[in-house]
Amino acid sequence: MCGTCGCDEVTAAGTSETVTVEKDVLAKNDRIAEENRAWLASRSVFAVNLMSAPGSGKTTLLEATVRVLADDVFVGAVEGDQAGSLDADRLRAVGCRVVQINTGSGCHLDAGMLARALRELDPQRGSLVVVENVGNLVCPALFDLGERRRVVLASTAEGEDKPLKYPHMFRAADLVVLTKADLVPHLTFDVDHFARHLSRVNRSAELLVTSVVSGEGLHQWFSWLRSELGVPSREVSEPAAPAELEAPSVPS
């Protein structure tokens, strides 16, 4: 897929040169990630690395998140895509400040990319910054960006076996968000089976079952973010259809 992490190379098992290059790449990345983490902490910015396969609903969930949380906290986003700015344009339309990163043939974001994006985004103290990583269930799990939490999305349309087929990704997650729950009646997807598969690879990750269409689970998602941010949770229920809310103005 890309030359950065070497996942496009087919080499014989045990090739020392390939292992050395991979270690060097990851070591450099990890050093920059720690710098990012310190920079974010100095501003009390809560950064989330959002990872998933393409089409899981990352951008749709982010649109709903901006609409609901923008009155409480500055929300910024870093959009990772191989090409184009379709998702970034959608987020800007609901009042989110966005920095676009196009990776070309690259299949993930790395800490250096995020470092440059953060300086451009220049988030306010106490902000929420969501990194929407390139859609891929393999390589993004390898690269620490300096985020505080990793959230993995999986949609019901993808099948309940994904935690078993991509264990490293789900093992890296602090939170797993199952999306498109409104489609379950039309699929053979079993939520309990998905939960058991997730538990086999990661017993500590919390699982949220959500649907932006029906509103299921969104209050729990917003509450999780508010808890991490230290922002008080709302006493009233969140709206069931966030897409109907008026878009907030762009934060200054």
UniProtKB/TrEMBL annotation:
Q: Name one GO biological process term.
A: protein maturation
Q: Give the CobW/HypB/UreG nucleotide-binding domain ranges.
A: 48-207
Q: Which Gene Ontology MF annotations are present?
A: GTP binding; GTPase activity; nickel cation binding; zinc ion binding
What keywords appear on the UniProt entry?
A: GTP-binding, Hydrolase, Metal-binding, Nickel, Nucleotide-binding, Zinc
Say yes or no: keyword Metal-binding present.
Answer: yes
Cite the InterPro entries for this sequence: CobW/HypB/UreG_nucleotide-bd, Hyd_mat_HypB, P-loop_NTPase
Which PANTHER family does the protein's record reference? HYDROGENASE MATURATION FACTOR HYPB, HYDROGENASE PROTEIN ASSEMBLY PROTEIN, NICKEL CHAPERONE
Q: What is this protein called?
A: Hydrogenase accessory protein HypB
Which organism encodes this protein?
A: Saccharomonospora xinjiangensis XJ-54
